[in-house]
Design a protein that fits this description.
9 helices; binds farnesyl diphosphate; about 45% helix; alpha/beta
Length: about 250
């Protein structure tokens, strides 16, 4: 039997960066040290994805629910984010990366928000990889935000309820304009989605790896891409249909 495999690179990769706390605990360190080394993984994976030619990378950096963590951990994460934005500014701009944020960024501390907004603006015209940070983000919250916008437009008479289909609705999400999510990776051995990109995940391939996020570096990414390349993506079609599509393209 012919093996129908997708050997192509994913256009859009999402990552649930999990396991920072456990990594730190295992080293006898404070949780924030796990986040600090996790920020180094962010740098390495972003650079590797860009070098490979991935069009979009979306990282789950802080969930809507993470605000409920101990205040010192939340403050530590916000400081790391600020340091990251300042420290990576040149790398982002010099390499044509377009930075975006999804989530309720209005809830971020003023300094972080100002630094983020400035870099999002400064990189807006870049045409290289789009790096999206999910900050104060929840998939359900993001769908609810889009529904509010749809309802507002319908009430204002600029949108007919019957015109709301999958494409139209997708245009109201903060991920509008990004390529479809092809691959979702979660580190640390947990096999759940934890409120990340719930709408966008519809046909994504899911890969769960045991490595904790601070350990996850480009070699791990390459291994995930190998696995992704060996998967058959059917999008609701049969294997034979996919095969004849591949042959005729
Ligand atoms: C999950 O691990 C990770 C987070 C809640 C934060 C992710 C943040 C970073 C990787 C660093 C800062 C981000 C950027 C973009 C510079 P966890 O703390 O839930 O780990 P655990 O499950 O082992 O406790």
């Amino acid at each position: 039997m012919t093996e129908h495999v997708s050997r192509r690179l994913p256009r859009h990769i999402g990552i649930i960066m999990d396991g920072n706390g456990r990594w730190a605990q295992r080293q006898g360190l404070d949780r924030i040290e796990g986040h600090r080394v996790g920020a180094e993984s962010v740098r390495d994976i972003t650079r590797a994805a860009r070098e490979l030619g991935v069009e979009a990378l979306t990282l789950y950096a802080f969930s809507s629910q993470n605000w409920q963590r101990p205040v010192e951990e939340v403050m530590g994460l916000m400081q790391l984010l600020q340091d990251y934005l300042v420290g990576e500014r040149a790398e982002i701009l010099d390499n044509g990366i377009r930075l975006r944020a999804i989530g309720d960024s209005e809830k971020l501390p003023g300094t972080v928000r100002a630094t983020l907004d400035e870099l999002v603006g400064a990189s807006a015209a870049n045409r290289g990889m789009t790096l999206t940070l999910a900050l104060s983000y929840g998939g359900r919250e993001s769908i609810a935000r889009a529904v509010r916008a749809v309802a507002r437009d319908a009430a204002a008479g600029t949108l007919r309820p019957d015109d709301v289909d999958v494409d139209r609705f997708g245009g109201y999400l903060q991920t509008a304009g990004l390529p479809p999510l092809d691959l979702l990776i979660r580190t640390s051995g947990e096999q759940r989605i934890s409120n990340f990109l719930l709408w966008e995940i519809a046909y994504a391939e899911l890969i769960f790896v045991d490595a904790l996020w601070p350990e996850f570096r480009r070699a791990h990414l390459h291994a995930c891409l190998e696995q992704y390349g060996a998967r058959e993506r059917r999008f609701g079609l049969t294997s034979d249909q996919v095969a004849s599509d591949v042959e005729s393209s």
